[in-house]
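Bug #77: duplicate submission created two jobs. Keeping one. Sequence:
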Amino acid sequence: MMNALYQAARRYLLQRLKFWIKRLLFPNKANQTVGIPIPQSAVADALTVWCQDHLLAQALERSAHRDHRVPCASIIVLTHNNLPLTCLCIERLYHYTDYPNFELIIVDNASKDETRDYLEGLQIFLPNFLVVFNSKNEGFARANNIGIMHSRGDYLVLLNNDTIVTRGWLARLIRHLEKDPKVGIVGPVTNSAGNEQMIPARYSSIEELERFAEQRLKDFEGRYFEIDSLAMFCVVFRRRLIDEIGLLDERFRLGTFEDDDFCHRAKLRGYKLICAEDVFVHHFGRGTTRSWGDREYLKLFEHNRRLFERKWGVRWRPARLRI
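Kept job's structure:
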């Protein structure tokens, strides 16, 4: 009954009403997991984890044996406070990324907590790690553009800092991208998204998350589907796509709809967008906007929706959900 009401609301009501109905009927739908452990925010403890878990040795080993015959992938992650999420994201990224030639570029949007100290500490001993510190919060689109301009990879990866990647994630996404030259952008399935990328997911620890992702790979290996628009919590595309359609549109300010806009431009260029069914990335959701009130977030959402509609002369419609 509740699902029927929600679907009716999505189809007929104004976006503002849809937003509140979704929150009232499905208050926990955006975060379908519980108990994922997040590291302590103390910088000293966060840096010590690298030695205790042998992450540093692992990172140095991979950097020393980078296969330069393989195209480089530039992973761009934005940060703005929320040090615990950033620690977890970076630790899991180095632990689970087995692609043989990648660099990590962090663009910090003027964090006020201890994020800068942590990133400066990592920068001292990680060879394929670059940090760009912005003097103010430049927002999602501009900060990613800054990261892109500092990158050198043939593949560009935009990854939120409120994510946990899983084993083999990057190599499989790139494999999907390269199977068909008409595929412009690829993204994974996840536990939290506003479109068909969201799937039912239950786990309460990193270990359970890893087992869930491994089982997902076995059940859906090689499978994907075309999608109208990809959420930019995790996307991969070729650098030449930027040459063809341009950077992210910075008029969308702090965030929302820059992903719809970028995907729309890729489709106008004739590219397909696909979601890889065999790659799962955990997404906490609203990592950098979690401190905002619902009204503040909705105000930004509505402003950028109108901007998107004026720019393209279309009426934006919410994406479908599979669950």
